[in-house]
Amino acid sequence: MPTNIITGPQDPQPNFTPELKGTHRAAHALADKGWEVVPCLHAPAKKPHYLRGVLEEGFNSATADHELIDVMFAHFPGSSIGVRLQSRLVAVVDTESVEGHGVDGYAARRQLEAELGPLPPTRTHGTATGGEHGLFLVPEGIELTNCELAPGVELKVNGGILVPPSPGYTVKVKTRMAELPEAWVERARKKPKEISGDRESASSRPKVEVQDGGPIPKRTRNNTLVSIAGRLHDGTRDLEQLTADLLAINEVRCDPPKDPRKIERLARWTIQKDPCRPGEKHGIKVRKRIRQLEKRFWEEYGENFAGLGGQSDRDLLRARLNTAAEFGRIMPNGDIVYDMEAEGMAERAGITRPTVYTAEKRLASKIGTRRDTYHRKATEAGAWILPAQLFTTRNSPPPEEADGVVKACAPGVVGLQTPAYYHFGPVNKGEGGVLLALEAHGPLTGEELAEVLGRGRDHVPRVRDLRRRYLEDTEREDGSTRQGLLSRGLVEERDGRYALPLDHQERCEEALDEPYGRTHTRLVHRYSPSEGRKVAEVVEFDRAASQRQRQEARRKNYADQREAFLLHLEERRRDEERMPEAEEECRELLNEMDEERESADVEISASTIRLAPGETVDPETGEVLNSDDEASAPEPEASVSTAVDGRVLPFGDLGRLYPLVDHRVLTDEGPGVLWQVFGDRVGVLLDDGPDEVTFLPPAAVLEGEEAA
Fold first, then answer.
1. Please, what is the angle between helix 446-453 and helix 429-441, to 10°?
2. Would you give the DSSP letter of residue 177?
3. Is residue 159, in this structure, part of any structural domain at all?
4. pLDDT tens-digit readout, 277-302
5. DSSP reduced 3-state for 486
6. Of the candidates 625, 649, 634, 659, which has an alpha carbon nearest to the alpha carbon of residue 704?
7. Is 373 a member of any domain?
8. Domain that holds residue 688
9. Residue 222 to residue 247: CA distance in whole angstroms
10. Residue 286 maps to a domain
11. Which tens digit of pLDDT belongs to each residue from 460-502?
């Protein structure tokens, strides 16, 4: 029988009324009285079931929320009922029997009553092993722990117990719970031997507390410090405070302390993660919020699911809700966020990766979903976000009751077994939508099915159109016949209603393994070295394959692309590591060139200044002239002289002023130091001028003062 994780097994019979029976209905009744319940294995196991995101903490996952009770007992129908005990409210005197535990707890209890006084009449349950559970109220202000009062007599105030109508459990005394007598309370306080409330196996490795734990041995420092860092990062500390706290814990508790640089690196890594909230059950809160979107999936979002693009949007939104319910976490601002690659979402939605991007844009504009790929590394998956604005803040009402029958919750979409089919497979997306609607809503008439699929649209599809497109066989243009859902056995018609067969999941799996498509051939010419000439051969491509085979091929193709991308990142990292070495080599080469240029300039300057007595420099050619040749030398346009090493050097152009840079000269503004020579001016630091460079024309440099 097809099972929905939200609504439970679907009755294929027409005119059905969802009804909760047995332990499921009793769980709702206990929740109405304030008890927190959880589905458990039958005796003698008596352990709570496990369901990712909902039942992960044993009896601590118990709840009084009616919607979560529907989720848990629909997933584990017929389970025993466990209730969670609270140390300040209820205490259970557990009396064991010889048949069940090999010890006579009844005789031990009679001895205790003779010593401490008799127990007052109270509500009593018979257990599956022949024992008894006496339920007592804990006196106000008293907090007890689980302990063994006598061999075969235990006091339980923590953990949980099974209650009727669980198989083997009965109500032996039906009366109000009495208060545990004071003498029994004092005996429980003095008993040092404690017992486990739910008898679940605990980890053999002790947990180290963040603040008051003991020494951290050498071989456990890494894991323990990472755990402590995660608990300290609760959103109230910045990087500096987190680093200081971790360094203090490392110094006091680690034996020996780790390198402080590694602690700082751990703090920087931790602060980049999402803050943790101590004690918050993300899975349960996420499921409750996702449940609100499931109702809107059929009631409000139907108008967005028309056409091929709308069918892709529908399956992507369904995949988002399923993935958020499985991996989602609640952020401080109320958003539900989970991380997954786009290829993974494409496989879950039965579409391609490019279609995921386009469909997500449509969902963002119509519904308000978001995707964040900016705050991540190149090798990390992007974040998919369901904003807090999509969820209502009001509490969900309890299940409606009519004529003494508790009705099931509204149709959901999380956990349904109908796969997300491809567009043009043996079962296309339109037919998959019909199967999805029937699994969520149960058997429907043609008019009801048309209303569900057309809800929110301007024009509701006609029943005959649904039959022609999805339910009945149709003839293709090439003369072949395409089978509908009825002839394929995926949908059955009973008394005017369309319903899913009992083996719905098996038939859906068979459709995934059915090959489809055509094999095409192509004539390819290639050179054959053995024959020494070109040969022609027929090559097949686009062979017929099933949806599973196509998915496997896409996974392999994506794995190859990812491997190539990782190799590209590795090569780029190596190039970046080699970059400083190349820059250093280039820097050394430039430094050598600068040194060679400076040494050449020094030689040129020295050869220009060192003139023998009676020698001058031709201002045009730069040749050294003797005193005998002065008459033949042309007179410079603007003669400038200065004294260097006791000799007066005339200069007729700017090129001859360069050797005098940083030397004292005379100008028509007074003495000073020549700072720099430019194309049309010179810069001089005058002795009597301001403490800055004075720019003068080259002719303003006069003769007469020796260089300092």
1. 110
2. P
3. yes
4. 544 445 677 877 888 787 777 776 66
5. helix
6. 649
7. no
8. 617-702
9. 13
10. no
11. 567 788 888 888 888 877 777 888 888 888 888 888 888 888 8
